[in-house]
Structure formats: C-alpha cells, structure tokens
Design brief:
single chain, about 250 residues, mainly alpha
Length: about 250
C-alpha cells in the first residue's frame, strides 16, 4: 500500500514538474507573439500612410497641371481675341487699298489718254511724269495689298490653330479634374481607414499590455505554487520512505 502511495506521489511530482516546465517562459512567448501582432498592425498603418502620401503627391501634381492648363488656355484665348480684333482692321485697310487702287487706275487711264493726245514734248513729259508717279503709287499699294492678304490668311490660320489647342487643353483639363476628384475620394477613404487603424492599434497595444502583465503574474504565481507543491510531495515521499525503512 505504501509503495502504491509513493508511486502515485511520484506521478504527481512528475506532473507538477512538467507543468512548471511548461509555464516557464510563457510570458516571454506571449510578449513575442504580441510584438509580432503589433508589428503586423503597424505595417498596415504604415502601408495606409504610404498610400495617403502617394495620393497627396498625385493630387498636388494634378492641381499643378490644372493650374498650368488654365494659364495656357487663358493665354491662347487672349491671343485669339487679339487676332479677332486685328483681322477686321486689316480687312478694312484691304478694302481701302482696293478703293485707292481703283481710283489710281482711273487716273492712270485718264493720263494715258491725255498722253496719247499730247502734241508737244513738254506736255508729254509732264504727263509721263504723272503716269510714273501714279504707277509707283499703284505698285506700292499692290505690294501692301498682297502683304495684307498674307497677314489675314496667316491670322485666320493662327486663330484656327489656337482654337484647336484650346479645345484639346480643355479636354485634358476635364480629364485631370476627373482624376483629381477620384484621387481626393480615394485619399479620404484611406484617411478614414488610417484613423481607424490608428485607433485599433492603440486598443490592441493596450489590451496586449494587459495580457502580457497577466501572463507574467500567472507564470510567477503558478511557478511558485507548483514549486511549493513539489516540495510538499517530496516531503510526503520522504516520510513514506522513512516509514517503509523503519517497518523493514
């Protein structure tokens, strides 16, 4: 009967020793696991923060692009307005030249008729001198007329080209504004996610601190209790063995 008691106590002692061994370092393992958990949470926070910064950079670039396009559109519209003001003036001058040319051509015809009817050299020289002067005036007006026609055609081409550019820039601005709206919406969503993650991280950190402290207390108290119980079992075994020795 005493042998059975010793054997049972040895099993109890072994179980207590195993338990004491198992709980040894439990708080350290819990701390390591908690740190891994916190690192994973912080990584999510950092990834979200990086996405927010990426979107903020995109928003800044889009705002700058839109501002640049606004300036270019305004400049092009100003140039178009200048051309629209200049073209009518050139056209009026062109009509005026046509009238001057017509008048001078009539004068030239009259002078040529007079030259044909002139009877003396002096008169013919005077008329020829007038014809030469009128011819020079006509040539000058023809050159000015040709230059004006070129300038008017060139101004019309510039105006058409500028209008095409304005249309393209407005389309690009509209696309940038759509991208900007999407980027701002995404940034707000990620900002809300970031705020939630930060709050959750604080809560997790606090809860894990409580958990680690609890495991430390549990490890300390359990190890002490198991140690005391092992000592008690050892004394029981010792007394039984003494009894058996005396009985023999």
């Amino acid at each position: 009967m005493a042998d059975v008691s010793v054997d049972a106590l040895q099993k109890v002692k072994s179980a207590l020793s195993t338990f004491q061994s198992d709980i040894a370092g439990i708080s350290l393992r819990a701390s390591n696991q908690s740190q891994n958990c916190l690192n994973a949470c912080r990584q999510k926070v950092d990834e979200t923060q990086a996405k927010i910064e990426e979107l903020e950079s995109a928003i800044t670039k889009l705002n700058n692009k839109i501002e640049t396009l606004d300036g270019q559109i305004s400049s092009a519209l100003s140039q178009i307005q200048q051309l629209e003001n200049a073209i009518p003036q050139m056209e009026r001058r062109h009509r005026s030249i046509e009238m001057e040319i017509s008048s001078l051509q009539q004068q030239l015809s009259a002078l040529q008729a007079q030259l044909a009817d002139a009877e003396d050299d002096d008169t013919r020289q005077q008329i020829q001198s007038q014809i030469n002067m009128v011819t020079q005036q006509l040539n000058s007006l023809f050159r000015e007329q040709s230059e004006l026609e070129y300038q008017i055609q060139n101004a019309e081409k510039q105006k058409a080209s500028l209008r095409q550019k304005v249309s393209e820039m407005k389309s690009e601005k509209s696309r940038c504004e759509q991208e900007l709206s999407i980027a701002k919406k995404k940034k707000n969503q990620y900002q809300q996610k970031f705020d939630r993650l930060k709050t959750m991280l604080g809560t997790v950190n606090s809860n894990l601190d409580v958990y680690i402290n609890a495991t430390r207390k549990f490890e300390s108290s359990s190890s002490s209790s198991a140690g005391q119980n092992i000592k008690a079992v050892d004394k029981c075994i010792e007394h039984i063995e003494e009894y058996l020795s005396t009985a023999l």
